[in-house]
Design goal:
The protein is mostly helical. About 80% of the residues lie in helices and about 5% in strands. Strands 1-2 form a two-stranded parallel sheet. The longest helix is centred in the middle third of the chain and has 39 residues.
């Protein structure tokens, strides 16, 4: 039940060959690049939505509790935690000053 002693070196050699191949690393790099592009796209969409909604509330001069929670908890906090820029932050700072409409 010991098996053929030449099998393991062949398997190990094959696995190392795959890991060392340039095609394998190119595949991994392409996946990483796609992920970065998706992250940027998602951040851009979140920023656009935060600015659009925030400006509409600022123009209105007030915000409801539900609107605030939706904007703050589900858009702003994840956007900020993902490294969003200062554009949306400036809008959110103004939104936080608005009167809460009941």
């Amino acid at each position: 039940m010991q098996g053929d002693p030449t099998v393991w070196p062949a398997i190990l050699s094959g696995a190392l060959g795959i890991l060392a191949s340039s095609g394998f690393w190119a595949f991994l790099m392409k996946r990483a690049d796609n992920r970065k592009a998706q992250d940027k796209l998602l951040l851009g969409l979140a920023c656009d939505r935060i600015v659009h909604l925030g400006m509409s509330y600022i123009e209105r001069g007030e915000i409801t509790k539900d609107e605030y929670e939706m904007l703050h908890d589900y858009l702003w906090i994840p956007y900020r935690d993902c490294g969003g820029d200062g554009t949306a932050e400036r809008v959110m700072n103004e939104v936080m000053k608005l009167k809460i409409r009941k």
